[in-house]
Fold:
Amino acid sequence: MMELDIKKKLSGANGPFELRVQTEIKKGEFLTLYGPSGAGKTSVIRMLAGLMKPDQGRISVNEQLWFDSVQGVHLKTRLRSIGMVFQEYSLFPNMTVRGNLVFALPKGENESWVDHILGMVGLLSLQDKKPGLLSGGQKQRVALARALVRKPQLLLLDEPLSALDTAMRNKLQDDILQLHAELGLTTVLISHDYHEVKKMSDRVLVIEEGQLVKQGKAEDIF
Ligand SMILES: Nc1ncnc2c1ncn2[C@@H]1O[C@H](COP(=O)(O)OP(=O)(O)OP(=O)(O)O)[C@@H](O)[C@H]1O
Structure:
């Protein structure tokens, strides 16, 4: 169970506005953030990841405090149990697929977990290739696998599929849903794609100009 209550002043294209999001995320939930460009969705994910500091509020995950403005707590990104995938492929180009995953493995951890993850996402046959030789979909599959190497409590996905063609996109959506279920993940996805939101989400938060304007099941919202 995750509790999130954050405020942050942002400077948007039409002047400053306040981002304010308050919600609880259940363990195992698949939550999607939906809303127009510039609404503050990426900022929410960055604050969950510890890459942006809220002005005020509190983030707690299973009794562990990640952020608390009153107590002055701001846990560093590497101390938060998170995995992240963004739209741009952020793989190390000079390492193999396997190398990218092993690099993310905590010191002393058994590499058999890397094999397991590679198998789950269907990358075993590509494990010795460098990312430059892979298609966009394959690269995102590697990025997803790498995000899962540390068995994160929270998986953060910022439009990871928006650069892919429809077929590849569908396939990766299925993979993400399967991994989410098999690993018991709690996942927060940003998506602009209405079909994707409907297919993936247990719950949708609609954010406009920093405000949470609607939330609920996708079929009730659209
Ligand atoms: N550190 C910051 N301080 C102030 N304003 C910021 C900061 N970072 C981003 N912003 C502004 O906040 C606004 C919201 O950005 P954000 O990327 O969170 O929106 P978004 O909903 O994810 O949009 P998109 O869908 O286009 O990615 C933007 O106008 C951006 O310029």
About this structure: Residues 10-13, 35, 37-43, 52 surround adenosine-5'-triphosphate (CB under 6 Å).
